[in-house]
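QUALITY CONTROL LOG
STEP: pairwise intake check
CHECKER ROLE: data steward
CRITERIA: each record must contain a sequence immediately followed by its structure tokens, with no blank fields

ENTRY 1 OF 2
RESULT FIELD BELOW
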Amino acid sequence: MLILILLLAAYLIGSIPTSIIAGKVLRGIDIREYGSRNPGATNTFRVLGKKIGITVGLIDIFKGFFAVYFLPVLIPAGGAVSQEIRMIVAGLAVVAGHIWTVFAGFKGGKGVGTAFGVFIGLAPLPSLIAAVVWCALTFGTGYVSVGSITAAVALPMALIVLGLVRGNLSLPTAVIAVIVGALVIVRHRLNIGRLMRGEENRFGRRGKP
């Protein structure tokens, strides 16, 4: 029962539609009607500006971190389920909540920021490596989608390689990293199509109604 409560709590935290709330409260608009129409931090950055976009992104990251780092402590399972498994369950649920938010017709963002927050809690060093990759590819190419897709591959690779080198590889965490990475890539399938056609928006370009 407690693991189900943990799952539901993490899902609801992930479901908080940060960009939609920011658009309506701060600008009186629905972010889903502007730019790429995706209710995520990148579109918020383009449409509402740097300050709001960065703030929304940081909140999305914190949602993931809070779900795996604090929720398993606040909702303990009495030793019936290991701490790592509870963190993984919460991590999956919070990412699912962000992508399929119950508060916006089950249509949310791509899950990159929230997933990053999850792995800051689960695997800090691989997350740092993925963040460096994201920054290098995003600012090097001008495309957030390129940085996000590459980071989604880099994180599980870094986690597995470092785990093997150190001799402390956690199979459950590695599996969840691969699953979440694949999910992020699938969520970018339309971006991949636009990249191949040369139609993808570059980072920082303002969105239009």
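ENTRY 2 OF 2
RESULT FIELD BELOW
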Amino acid sequence: MTPASIRTALDSLAARDDDIAEAIALVGYPEPRNREPGFAALLNIIIGQQVSAIAAAAIRARLAEAVEPLTPEKFLAAGEETLRGVGLSGRKVEYGCGLAEAMLSGVLETDRLAKLPDDEVVRSLTGIRGLGRWSAEIYLLFALRRGDIWPAEDLAIQEALRRLKNLEERPARKISEAIVEPWRPFRGIAALFLWHYYKGAP
């Protein structure tokens, strides 16, 4: 995703959806959030699970200083004491080590993921302990840059969609998927915008 491709996609959506048009006028366009595919991107998704964005960023910064470069080999070699010291919980250390081992053993080949359809990427990633559907969808969106991914379980996305569409409550997957169906093939770019809207709208 580039700033130009994001703007083009959102302008297309705004022409079909007055709520998006009004929201863009209010908060502007989001910046890309591209990540390099591979171990570091997946580990950073694990770090971001069930913690605030600020806490996750702090842990990632400390981890980058302690383990450089952030590869499966270096992560495993760092040891639990070092990994816990940067702020990773015991469970996330376990998940990270499992991910590293899966990649080193060839159980998970991230180069191969880039060639697979979306549903097969989700199936491959959710086979790794610690990676659920949300994690797989975030990887598809930001590392593999699949522009039509809809991360329906993301709480910020749910809340932003609730505000955008003036809903009484945060929509579950089935409801949100019906709402955003007309946004194909740009649902992922719409999700990127909704994160931006969530942070910036009054």
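INTAKE CHECK: passed for both entries
DESCRIPTIVE NOTE, ENTRY 2: The radius of gyration is 18 Å.
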